[in-house]
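User: My advisor, Dr. K., asked me to get a structural model of this assembly before our group meeting. I'm new to this, so sorry if the format is off. These are the inputs:
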Amino acid sequence: MTPRSRSSRSSRAVLAASALLMALAGTASAQTILKIGYTPPKDSHYGVGATTFCDEVEKGTQERYKCQHFPSSALGGEREMIESVQLGTQDLVNTSTGPLGNFVPETRIVDIPFLFRDYEHARKVMDGAIGQDLLKKMQAKGLIGLAWTENGFRHMTNSKRPILQASDAAGLKVRTMENKVHMDGYKTFGLLPTPMAFPELFTALQQGTVDGQENPIPVILSSKFSQVQKHLSLTGHVYSPAVLILSSRVWDKLSEADKKVFVAAAQKATVAQRKRVNDDEANGITQLKKDGMQVVEKVDGESFRKAVAPAYAGFAKEFGAERIAAIQAVK
Ligand code: EAX
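Assistant: The format is fine. Below is the predicted structure of the whole assembly, which you can bring to the meeting.
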């Protein structure tokens, strides 16, 4: 063997090795890990929605995108997470509309108490032209609303007394989300609204900083509020939408094909998350009773509707009476 052929053979080997290294490095750098956060635990409607979304994105992009989950407020409350998604330091959030109106004022309209008749009505509005238009409004704020998921109809819990009608709610100090529309509405029930981020809520209930709170059954269940609250009343006083938001920093880098994958994945997440809401609504009350809660199932809803009716004048002024009417008219 001539020295020359030996050197060419070893340089071929070097080339092959470096090609292999490049291929390995290529694989590694082509995979993007997306950070997704939500306030309830992984075993909740939010976790189900997030997991469905991530599985679909992973499949649809041949694992070029994967998720890392941050459940149980590991990245902060919903306001903080929306801020981080806006900055691009967090990629995704599955959040209620609680603090969203502070970023995208147009979305506030869906937070009006007693606006939606039932789940069917609410889902139809969110999936229809009105809801889809609101998703688009987020874009100007660096937030890509991929799909409306769902939190659920909110009910009141407290440590003081059963709430059968609005007058029973009067005087209770109740934690609310950082949401002015909710607070304006709840004041008409006589409640003393105390806005607070979700991560602080369990301790506040435990220590008696507030008498009560309001949340959908899936949140009451997954956050174990039965440990710190005696009374649950099925007031269903407001629908709480949720939304899967992607940072525009990620969105802007996606190919057209990947954008379609992300949106379709979010729509599948919506179906899965709502199904879990349905299941929790169907089975959760029995569980909460077993856990020791006293549940008022037949609440005098009319007394609440009557109380909030005068506040609708203010809502009409803020959002336009015709916009409110358009939502109510969806059948
Ligand atoms: O979105 O803050 C709340 O009460 C929300 O319902 C909760 O974070 C789930």
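One thing worth pointing out at the meeting: Residues 52 and 152 are 18 Å apart (CA to CA).

User: Perfect, thanks a lot.
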